[in-house]
Predict the structure.
Amino acid sequence: MDMLKTISHAFKVAEIRSKMIFTLLMLVVFRIGSNIPVPGIDRATLSQVFTGETGLFDLFDLFSGGSFSQFTIFALSITPYITASIIIQLLTIAFPYFERLAKEGEEGRKKMAQITRYLTIVLALIQALGLTVGLFRKAVIDQTWFSFAVIILVLTAGTAFLMWLGEQINDKGIGNGISLIIFSGIVARIPSGLRSIWTQYADGQLSVVTLLVFLLFAIVVILGIIEVQQGTRRIPVQYAKRVVGRKMYGGQSTHIPLKVNQAGVIPVIFALSILQFPLTITYFFPGTAFTEFVTKWLSPAGNPGVWVYAVFNVILIIFFNYFYTAVTFNPVEVAQNMKANGGFIPGIRPGKATVEYLSRVMSRISFVGAVFLAVIATLPTLVGQLTGMNIHFGGTSLLIAVGVALDTMKQLENQMVMRNYQGFLK
């Protein structure tokens, strides 16, 4: 109710209302484009590709809101941009040039954004080429180089347009444009997921008790995601007083907020990409011993594969959570900046002791965040196996949807703070 009240108050302000309407219109454009098919594709042949387990393609279909399986103009969605962003972020710790750009302020960020755009187009071209000439080759009606070129250019242009759409939302709307595009794609799949569950209930495959347990489970998971996503460990920082000219600076107390889930949903995506890669390979080698082995031992639909898959999923998520947290949070840099500005953590000596303290605290809360991500990502698979429910809206979808919703509401409330309005995210 508080969230609806916040939206209602924000909608009464003309400037914020125009931003909200603009954002909604851009998302409508995205959903319209998600239903425009790529020309020259045989739909009957295409439908045969997505029967049963499709491995890594399920992840692509998740981010595209079903556009990938329907092979529309937004089939690649924004995944090339996400991949390019992660690559650029990782390069900042491997190459001094990118590290220098990251520290150059606004100009450096603009340069990195430009490099990310170019890399996005290159990755989109490579993916479009692989899908058109490889995976969906049989579905192409006219097997000529011109037809393949048109399909590749359409797919690449679709990704470029979505990238532009996301930047327009950032400039003229509310929230992060790229995140909202992914969010709208995930939310668009909710009706089909609910219809699938209802069909199973109507056919007698599910009981009322199972549906109630599932509903309770979904509520608990969503509440858990909200609590952990909002959770932070506040490290107190005291700044010493110093005199510059005739003025005195410093002397105030503040804190460093360390998020419990510092890595976000990235560890889950990395783990899914690795685990579902063997399932993707089986598509190209049907009926072989390798396919039978993967289906039995490494597939979430296999037995005992579901349990092996769950264990590996937990291990990989914990590993990638620590890895990505180490990439995004540098305790040495934080300690140096703190010391340069005359700040210190009460009871901790500046320098090496501060670095060790920050590393120790970050390691502990990262473990909590890693276990949380592993539980959220694994539970839907296990619940689906135990209850027989075909759950399309899994843990990864919930993490992304809830995280983006919270982030958007925070930005909306920041707009209202200037008007002395208190929101619901306290």
